[in-house]
Amino acid sequence: MSLDNKQVKEIAYLARLSIEDTELEQSTSELNNILSLMADLSEIDTGDAEPMAHPLHMSQRLREDEVTEENLAEEFQAIAPKTGKSHFLVPTVIE
Amino acid sequence: MIMHNLSIAELIKGLKNKDFSSVELTQHYLKRINESKLNAFISVTDDLALSQANEADLKIAKGDSTLLTGIPYAHKDIFCTKGVKTSAGSKMLDSFISPYDATLSHKFNLENMVMLGKTNMDEFAMGSSNENSYYGPVKNPWDLKKVPGGSSGGSAAAVASRITPFATGTDTGGSIRQPASLCGITGIKPTYGRISRYGMIAYASSLDQAGPMTQTAEDAAIVLNAMAGFDTKDSTSATKETPDYTKKLTNSLDGLKIGLPKEFFSSGLDDGVEKVVMQAIKEYEAMGAKIQEVSLPNSMHAIPTYYIVAPCECSSNLSRFDGVRYGYRCEDPKDLDDLYLRSRSEGFGKEVKRRIMIGAYALSAGYYDAYYLKAQKVRQLISEDFKKAFQSVDVIMGPVSPSTAFDLGSVKDPVSMYLADIYTLSVNLAGLPGMSIPAGFSKNLPVGLQLIGNHWSEELLLNTAHQFQLKTDWHKSTPIEL
Fold first, then answer.
1. Rounded to an integer, what is the distance from CA B430 to the centroid of its chain?
2. pLDDT at A61
3. Domain limits at A9?
4. Is B344 in CB contact (< 8 Å) with chain A?
5. Contacts of A14 in chain B (CB under 8 A)
6. Model ipTM value
7. Which 8-state DSSP code applies to residue B293?
8. Which domains, ranges and CATH numbers included, belong to chain B?
9. A56, B455: Cβ pair inside 8 Å?
């Protein structure tokens, strides 16, 4: 199966990326080439193989519920594009 | 004495015997870096390096030093370094000054090591040629028209050209081993979870693993000692105890069982590369190793499997770059959606966007089972192949890359670039340790031999590599004019 230009635009938007109309044709063709490489997967008989999410089959380690982080609010705000007193600023969301 | 040709083991002796100070060593390397034309560094941290070297010399004078105190190194620009720009090779992080240290950076600082600078890399570690860097491609020191490999291309080129004693790298699908092979140096990707990923900018979290890139296997063992170990700050860090990786280097290889996967020697492998690899295997035979064929039937599915799993994880990991808290933000966003869309579209390069989109698609409703879940099942099969093979052999050997370094700009379509990762990807999918060591030359370009071990067998891999380097001189070859 292959993607058309409209689908590619939708996928890009899902990932909050935009594609210029001038680049759309090429992006669609590149993504389709990559997806045709993936088509091989459907041919493989995976039987009852368990999906492998962790290379060592480990489960998430839990720790004590204690505060371990220092308060770095000032350092984190110092590198943000735009900040207010104790928050990050973005364009108005609610009028 | 030519300082920059010394191994770390020799530099440690030199510092101890007061043949030179850490400041002298650091000045020597900084001079070489500033004269270098390879574009191997994104940032050179001259002032920081000299102050760290000064401090190291004081510590050494007081007898308050560790093995690596005063040893200079280059840090891949994917590791967060407090107060120093950490770009991951991306416009997105061009202005990012990290507010904290990666665990690995912290460990090196505790030993009073000297950071010379941050090395160039493919953007967010996505690439096999270093051509995807916002800061321009790195050149291969053996031939300036060729790529150094990727994504740790700056690190590999810097070690090969002897402008740093060693460099850090990261390997998600071959990013330590492939550039090590193409530049003629030694590199090891340890077992998944061996080195902390805290503060190492994430690409694909179930595959990413850091490792040292050095001149020799002995150096790799020395540096791995300083890098490895459990870290409470990384939830996927292994609690398993770390051995002293230098202890077994001298073990004999008599009776070592080496497996050659027949799938690694089929069509697509360059004749010159195959010849060098087989010559190296003969060398091992002469040392008493027993060679046998093994089969990894599913390893040939590693490309589609990896290029589903890794982009899925990357589309999730890179969603944090939103133009709000740090990194690039577009000019005058008209609303929040515009802020996200333009910051990400302007901040990310082409290959990164491509992988994010593949991941977003493969994870989207209706396609998850066909792509992501299926790829995870094939990943299991790939892993089981290795498990079976390691029942009959100790180490698996083969090529690292199907060819030697290719021309800059010569591979234009993404799929052809992906296909070159065929021999390295399955190792990451299975979480195994893998190594590349210099094994010879084909048409004047270096060829690496890949060593793959079972989980937690880094000691055996380093031992196997070190014994080869005692018998051969390939790791001592340096590019001319250096």
1. 17
2. 84
3. 5-42
4. yes
5. 360-361, 364
6. 0.95
7. E
8. 1-482 (3.90.1300.10)
9. yes
